[in-house]
Amino acid sequence: MDRVNAILCQPLYRKYYDSLEEIERDRIFCRHQMPHLLDVARIMEIRNLEEKLGFDRELIYAAAVLHDIGKSLQYTDKIPHEKAGEKIAAQILDGLPQEMVFSEEEKGMILRAIRGHRRLREDMEPFERLLCESDKASRMCFACPAEEQCDWSREKKNMEIKV
Ligand SMILES: [Fe+2]
After folding, report:
1. pLDDT of residue 93
2. How far apart (Å, rounded) are the C-alpha atoms in residues 42 and 24?
3. Domains assigned to the chain
4. Which of 8, 157, 160, 161 lies 20 to 30 Å from 139, alpha-carbon distance?
5. How far away, in angstroms, is 129 Cα from ligand 1 center?
6. How would you class 65 by CB atoms within 10 Å of its CB: exposed for 0-12, middle for 13-18, buried for 19 or more?
7. CB 150: neighbour CB atoms within 10 A?
8. CA of 30 to the centre of ligand 1 (A)
9. Residue 97 C-alpha to ligand 1 middle, in angstroms?
10. Rounded distance between C-alpha atoms, residue 124 and residue 12, angstroms
C-alpha cells in the first residue's frame, strides 16, 4: 500500500481532505472522510475478489481514497465533485514522488472512475462501475439518524443490508 499511503501524505491531498473535514464537521448527512473512503475500498475489494475482476488492490484503494476529494469545492464553489475531484486527483497523482507514481494506464482508470462515480450508466468501464456501485452500497441509510431529512430518493437509499 506504499503508493496509497503516499497519496494520503501528498500536500494537495491533505489540503482538500482537511478542508472537507472542516466543512463537514457538523454535517448530519453522509460525510466523506476516511471511514467512508475505506468502507468503499473494502467493498470494492470484496467484490473484486468475489467476482474475480482481477483489479490490483492498490489501484482499488487509490481510487477509493481519491474519489470524493473534490467534495469541498462542491460546497464552496458549486462545482460537481466528480469534476473537481478528477482534476485534483490528476494533480495529486502527478505530484507523487518518482518511485510512487502510477502508470498512465492506472491513472486513466482512476480518473475515469472518479469522473463517473456519481451515476450509473450503461456504458461504464468495469472499474468505474465497481467504484460507483460500492460507493452507493457503503451508505447505511437504515441506521442513519438523519434518514428522514435526507433528500436521496427512497429507491436510492439502502434500507436494509445488501450483499
Ligand atoms: Fe463517496
Report:
1. 98
2. 23
3. 2-149 (1.10.3210.10)
4. 8
5. 13
6. buried
7. 15
8. 9
9. 26
10. 28
Residue-level pLDDT at 163 = 72
CA of 37 to the centre of ligand 1 (A): 7
Helix 81-94, helix 57-66: angle, nearest 10: 130
Sequence length of the chain is 163
Q: Tell me the residue type at 152.
A: W
CA distances from 78 to 41, 135, 151 (A): 26, 21, 18
In order, the DSSP letters of 75-123 are HHH---HHHHHHHHHHHHHHTS-GGGPPPHHHHHHHHHHHHHTTS--TT
What's the whole-model pTM score? 0.96
In whole angstroms, what is the distance from residue 158 CA to residue 140 CA?
6
C-alpha 88/C-alpha 21 separation (Å) is: 16
Q: What residue ranges of the chain have pLDDT lower than 50? A: none
In 3D space, the residue among 121, 113, 34 whose CA is nearest the CA of residue 67 turns out to be 113
